[in-house]
Design a protein that fits this description.
Pfam families: DUF223, PIF1. The protein has helices spanning about 60, 120-125, 180-190, 235-240, 245-250, 255-270, 295-305, 305-320, 340-350, 365, 375-380, 400-405, 420-425, 475-480, and strands at about 20-30, 35-45, 50-55, 70-75, 80, 95, 100-105, 135-145, 150, 155-165, 170-175, 195-210, 220-230, 355-360, 375, 405-410, 460-465, 485-490, 500. The protein is α+β, with helices and mostly antiparallel strands and about 525 residues long. The chain folds into five domains: about 5-105, Nucleic acid-binding proteins (OB fold (Dihydrolipoamide Acetyltransferase, E2P)), CATH 2.40.50.140; about 120-250, Nucleic acid-binding proteins (OB fold (Dihydrolipoamide Acetyltransferase, E2P)), CATH 2.40.50.140; about 255-295, no CATH class; about 305-425, P-loop containing nucleotide triphosphate hydrolases (Rossmann fold, 3-Layer(aba) Sandwich); about 450-510, no CATH class. The radius of gyration is 28 Å and the shape is globular.
Length: about 525
């Protein structure tokens, strides 16, 4: 392939580059300053790697075009300086996608091109490693603790201490947190006494003083990143050669060991239902060793909550406490934890003696909110507002005082409202935050779209004998269901014959800031 540039050729002040690269790693990242971006590590045929970024306004354009492990021909992008304390490669520059960047199909680079570059334990232990760079860590687990639940910054999380060794028998203490801790602990339980290799890709290293480690070193190393246990990666097999004989024995289990691992899994499943194999006299029991220690499964399940909710909570509470204010559009399908988030926001603010106003776009939806009222009633919005309307609130009235002193306004099913309703409130210069919500299941055989507001349903059949007639109706109907699989649509013409399309009614201004807000999917 002629006229190709290599990663090592990339320089500043030029956009007409053409490189063939493999997507080594791909993830989404959220920050208050940049919003949700798409980050990646790219490698060329020489094995040189560079960090790539798709800014928030272009994520929707490129998200369906890039997948981890694919090889792409990239044309027309800019190169900027790489900076920060979370740098996934040592390349001095970073690729930034443009609206005109093109991704084309091309010959795939080798499958064994993974960019894996294991760090030397010595450079971590002696402090000589530059911790601004993310690193790859490989080792055999030689010491491990039980999973513990500890309080970090006032919040409970899982913690697993362990020690690794490399082919030179150097040792490295590690601490894993949260899901990483439970994933590795589960892998240890499955493999019993077998030797286990752990691989961490693009991990962040932090050093702190701690005296109660396994083994107890003067310094512990906290590494967080992407973890795999005994993955099929060429460099790993090459890195761990016959000095450990790990791959000669580590993946082989006897019939008894397979049985024991299966019993452990069954017992864990039963524990989630407040039972165990001990309750069944005729069933064999797993052999429990220090590596098959069984935690309180109910406790682990309760701690396995969605961290995205915490991010949204902290942003909104931060805006309230700092008096900075703001507008937050929180969205998501049924079952994503919006009810819990709304409850905790209201409780947290009301516990300090501040006011939270809960309003909805219709009377039916307002009945599902404790103390809820319709937006028209609460704010005095005209029945037929226009672009010049203001709210019917008398200055100095009780209603004006309540609204003025409110720290947070939660507005349910906001997209159902005419845009002039929001403009009327804005014209009245009342601070508010906009929010849409869905609420738990209410049994019904059939209902209108308006009646379905606030429902979260497993399956929805939408019958459209004629197009919707109001802004946001189609959106409300589609968002009642928890998954795309549970939605069926029948569209007919005037003669009752099936159609493939219908007309929607949307005020586009409502969604203009949708991409700048986030019901967070993933953090770095």
């Amino acid at each position: 392939m002629a006229c190709l540039d290599f990663v090592s050729d990339l320089k500043l002040f030029k956009s007409m580059w053409k490189v063939r690269v493999k997507v080594i790693r791909l993830w989404k990242q959220y920050s208050c300053a940049l919003g949700e971006t798409m980050e990646m590590v790219l490698a060329d045929s020489k094995g040189d790697m560079i960090h790539g970024t798709v800014k928030k306004e272009l994520v929707s354009q490129f998200v369906i075009l890039i997948s981890q492990g694919e090889t792409k021909l990239m044309v027309n992008f800019i190169v900027t300086m790489a900076a920060g304390s979370y740098r996934p490669t040592k390349h001095p520059y970073r690729i930034v996608f443009l609206p005109t960047t093109r991704l084309r199909m091309c010959d795939a680079l080798p499958s064994n091109l993974t960019g894996l570059d294991p760090v030397k334990y010595e450079s971590i232990n002696d402090g000589s490693l530059n911790t601004d760079y993310l690193v790859d860590v490989i080792g055999q687990i030689v010491e491990v603790s039980h999973v513990k639940v500890v309080s970090v910054n006032g919040k409970d999380t899982q913690k697993l201490s362990l020690e690794l060794r490399n082919q030179d028998d150097d040792r490295l203490p590690m601490v894993l947190w949260g899901k990483f801790a439970t994933d590795v602990n589960d892998a240890i339980q499955l493999r019993g006494e077998h030797k286990i290799i752990i691989v961490l890709r693009f991990g962040k290293i932090k050093v702190w003083k701690e005296t109660n480690q396994i083994p107890a070193p003067p310094d512990g190393v906290d590494i967080t990143g992407a973890i795999a246990v005994e993955p099929e990666v060429y460099e790993i097999k090459k890195y761990f050669d016959a000095s450990f004989s790990l791959y000669e024995t580590g993946l082989v289990m006897s019939d008894e060991e397979v049985l024991n691992a299966t019993l452990i899994l069954i017992d864990n499943l039963l524990r989630r239902e407040t039972s165990s194999l001990a309750n069944f006299e005729t069933m064999p029991k797993p052999v429990v060793t220090e590596h098959t220690f069984q935690e309180n499964q109910l406790l682990q399940d309760e701690l396995n909550y969605d961290r995205d909710e915490l991010s949204v909570y902290e942003q909104i509470i931060g805006a309230v406490e700092s008096k900075k204010g703001g507008v937050f559009f929180v969205y998501g399908f049924g079952g994503t934890g919006k009810t819990f988030l709304w409850n905790i926001l209201s409780a947290a603010i009301q516990s300090t003696g501040d006011i939270v106003l809960n309003v909805a776009s219709s009377g039916i939806a307002s009945l599902l909110l404790p103390g809820g009222r319709t937006a028209h009633s609460r704010f005095g919005i005209p029945i037929n507002p226009d672009e010049f309307s203001t709210c019917n609130i008398e200055q100095g009235s009780d209603k004006a005082e309540v609204i003025a002193k409110a720290s947070l306004i939660i507005w349910d099913e906001a997209p159902m409202m005419n845009k002039h309703c929001f403009e009327a409130l804005d014209h009245t210069r009342l601070p508010f935050k906009m929010r849409r919500r869905q609420f738990p299941l209410k049994v019904a055989f059939a209902m209108t779209i308006n009646k379905s507001q606030g429902q979260s349903l497993e399956r929805v059949g939408l019958f459209l004998s004629r197009p919707v007639f109001s802004h946001g109706q189609l959106y409300v109907a589609f968002s009642r269901v928890k998954s795309r699989k549970g939605l069926k649509i029948l569209i007919t013409d005037n003669d009752g014959k099936p159609e493939e399309s219908t007309m929607n009614v949307v005020y586009k201004e409502v969604f203009q800031n949708l991409l700048s807000s986030k019901f967070t999917q993933e953090s770095h």
